[in-house]
Design a protein that fits this description.
Number of helices: 8
Structural class: alpha+beta
Largest sheet: 7 strands, mixed
Distance between the termini: 55 Å
Order of helices and strands: HEEEEHEEEEEEHEHEHEHEHEHEE
Number of domains: 2
Strand order of the largest sheet: 13-12-11-14-15-17-16
CATH superfamily of the largest domain: Vaccinia Virus protein VP39
Oligomer: single chain
């Protein structure tokens, strides 16, 4: 859009400077774009951004452009912020962390929340990521504990305007560590709702294990609910994973396990 406006000799343009959250007017000059805060970006940098379909960028105080990505020494992988038609998603080692085909990550999150029903009391979010689930849960829940394995992911989230409330809302408590280990130290029957949105089975098989489900059942209040994201339940891989998940959830004590295909997951009820 900016390049088109430049080619038609426009002197101003209305664009989003916060990944679609709002719009602002910028000045178009011969050397590049001037933002409302006085920062500048060259036309060469604008071309770099336009050519990168999977990258989000930030401007440093010295007006240099850098891609929002970091290498995780802890997990030996790259993490980056990836644009979509709506809220951005997280790209980890080439894996996209949200549904983006025909849906944006914000609506993806809202479907998970609607699937589990009214959020109240204490809520556990087992995989922070960009914080969309924790933020949505905190709108109505009394308190949300959200667990993130990789601190690098949280550094990426700090650049994301859509994640701002993760670091601002007083009723969101962040914990760093492996959910498999972190859940073991949580109190019995503490949570009324648990939202379990793990990475793919191939990346985190322990978060699909019977041992882990037993721990989730232990910290869930009687009558509480668990939402478990799996992926497309009707796909060949999804249907196979679902069968194993349902069996292990039942063995852990969960009842009334319902498929929620619109949210790509299951809802399980505690006795």
């Amino acid at each position: 859009m900016l390049l088109n406006a430049h080619q038609t000799h426009d002197t101003t343009a209305s664009v989003s400077l916060d990944l679609g959250r709002s719009r602002a007017e910028v000045l178009l000059e011969a050397e590049g774009v001037v933002f409302p805060n006085g920062q500048k970006l060259s036309w060469a940098d604008i071309v770099t951004i336009q050519r990168d379909d999977v990258g989000c960028y930030a401007i440093a105080e010295d007006d240099t452009l850098h891609k929002i990505q970091q290498y995780s020494d802890q997990l030996d992988r790259f993490c980056s912020l990836m644009p979509t038609e709506g809220a951005p998603t997280l790209l980890i080692a080439g894996f996209i962390m949200h549904r983006i085909k025909g849906i944006d990550p914000y609506e993806d999150t809202q479907r998970k929340i609607r699937a589990i029903g009214t959020l109240r009391g204490q809520v556990l979010d087992t995989s922070t990521g960009l914080g969309y689930t924790a933020i949505a849960a905190a709108q109505s829940a009394e308190h949300v504990i959200t667990i993130e394995l990789d601190p690098t992911v949280l550094e990426i989230a700090r650049y994301n305007p859509w994640s701002r409330q993760l670091f601002e809302r007083p009723n969101i408590e962040q914990r760093i560590g492996d959910s498999f280990e972190q859940v073991q130290v949580l109190e019995d029957k503490r949570f009324s709702r648990i939202i379990h949105d793990p990475p793919a089975f191939s990346l985190a098989g322990e978060l699909y294990s019977g041992v882990f489900y037993q721990q989730l059942f232990r910290v869930l209040k009687p009558g509480g609910r668990l939402f478990h994201y799996i992926g497309d339940l009707s796909s060949k891989s999804g249907s196979g994973v679902t069968r194993g998940v349902v069996r292990r959830l039942q063995e852990a004590g969960f009842v009334r396990i319902k498929r929620r295909p619109e949210a790509f997951g299951l809802v399980a009820y505690a006795t």
